[in-house]
Design brief:
It is built from seven helices and seven strands, in the order H-E-H-H-E-E-E-H-E-H-H-E-H-E. The protein is globular and about 45 Å long.
């Protein structure tokens, strides 16, 4: 069986992007505009909600109310998704690795979580990068109109009333350098783990969430100020406008 170099994984990534841009090595964007770190409040303990209840309450929410989230709720969701859990014990501890609430091939932890804020009390509606080590948010860009967010995610209009949208991004180099093309699979696995944590934490807090795999890659990269990172997965979250587990899945006005 032929063994392909890491370029095969990158070719697959670009060929499956919207729109295809196989001739582009990396999505280009302005350098991130780091505007200082905002320390998040301590996350809420989610132990009073059982895992069974959190799983049962998870549903794809397409009916967000637009009501603001609290900063504590955002803090809790981000901490559960990819928060730092102290130094790892073992061979990689001397390299400054920090444990996270998800497994990572070779403890590389190549992901970042970015946040597009629309309605969060105490947060300006801008783009942010989550810093797990300090449990903080770093401003990376200006506001994005809710309609523009929907457009970036392939015209999904129900995103206009989501309070926040987390975007999981990755630096592919470390995993590909260690594992070759197969490392790309491991990065995708990890992104899925993070997204599921986002879902379960949102459910435990009584919030709705919606997983998003379709987006305009270059537009989203530019909006978040990405250079080395590429976007892989999105999760919108906020307060649902209905408690009906079936209605919440259906867009207002039905499917286009």
């Amino acid at each position: 069986m032929a063994v392909h170099g890491p370029s095969s994984a990158w070719s697959f990534h670009t060929d499956t992007s919207y729109p295809p841009f196989a001739a582009v090595r990396r999505p280009e964007a302005e350098p991130p505009r780091d505007g200082g770190a905002l320390k998040l409040p301590p996350p809420r303990c989610l132990g009073d909600v059982s895992l069974t209840a959190a799983m049962a309450g998870r549903a794809s929410c397409r009916r967000f109310s637009g009501a603001p989230l609290s900063l504590e709720e955002v803090s809790s969701v981000l901490d559960a998704a990819y928060g730092g859990q102290g130094d790892l014990n073992g061979s990689r501890a001397d390299q400054g690795s920090a444990a996270r609430p998800v497994p990572s091939a070779g403890a590389r932890y190549p992901l970042e979580v970015h946040l597009i804020v629309s309605s969060v009390a105490g947060l300006e509606p801008r783009t942010y990068r989550y810093g797990p080590a300090r449990h903080c948010l770093v401003c990376t860009g200006g506001p994005i109109a809710p309609e523009a967010v929907g457009d970036m995610f392939l015209g999904q209009r129900y995103l206009t009333t989501a309070s926040a949208l987390a975007v999981v991004t990755a630096t592919l180099g470390p995993a590909l350098a260690r594992y070759g093309d197969r490392g790309y699979r491991y990065v995708l696995f990890e992104a899925g783990h993070v997204a599921q944590n986002l879902n379960l934490a949102s459910s435990a807090l009584g919030l709705g969430s919606l997983n998003l795999g379709g987006f305009w890659d270059r537009s989203l990269s530019a909006a978040l100020g990405l250079t080395e990172q590429v976007p892989l997965y999105g999760v919108a979250f906020g307060r649902a406008s209905t408690t009906d587990s079936q209605d919440v899945r259906e867009p207002v006005g039905g499917w286009a």
